[in-house]
Amino acid sequence: MQRILSAATVTAIGLTCKAYLNSGLCSVSVRGLPHLLDALHSTERRNGQGIVTVSNHLSTLDDPLTWGVLPVHTYLRSHLTRWTLGASDIMFTNPVFSAFFRRGQVIETFRGDGIYQPAVDDAIAKLCTGAWIHLFGEGKVCQSSTYKPDPQTGRSRLRRFKWGVGRILMETPRPPTIIPMWITGFDTLMPEGRAAPWKYSRAPVRASASRSARPFRPTRCSPRCGAMWARRRGLGRAAGARRWRGEAGGGRGGERTRQTRVALTELVQRAVETVGRSVSGTC
Question: Is-above-0.90 flag for pTM?
């Protein structure tokens, strides 16, 4: 019954988002969608390779409205629908909301509980079975007006991505397909800072856009990450997971693990910012 209710929820939300994007209330531009669709239907995924999409986070509309650009058939199968992490204090505030978001494939995440909380474990477990996980690396809504320049390059940068991004990628038995994305325009549809009840209403018609870049694997971009997954394959899935968590120190691993996690998170953030510069020059 739970599976049926989840499928019904995913389908209803997907179709509603698609109807809105095609209603004429906003104009939408999408680039690079075939990269995601090819990954969702790839042979590698059927063999258990997970998919991780990572993007900036402009507004509360980003998810699920962004996925209204997907073909209708993706709403009819949960395996073709993303899982994502959602803040407990925003999305799981009462039993009704909790049931709705869980059935909509959202994993309850607790702010301040760190990267070793059950929500991150759950995301890793799903990724290991070939699921699609979407991550908002900043961990919160950060509209473009809040971007700060890099002291060295002068370019605007996103808020530092959460280290949980690196941990999720590190603890998969095989490197997942990573697709960096950039979303723009949703901050004008749902600006932050408005008082209730207006903050829940849509702003006037605006243009929105999203772009997906070519997928990449960290093993091809970072020798450190390539060596890490090579060692994990040699250890096996269970032993590899213990190796990277570290069996001492509360399961937090050693300095080498921390450095790899930081480097991997930074690699993903740079990839997302590169897509942003190609779209709007924001980053």
Answer: no
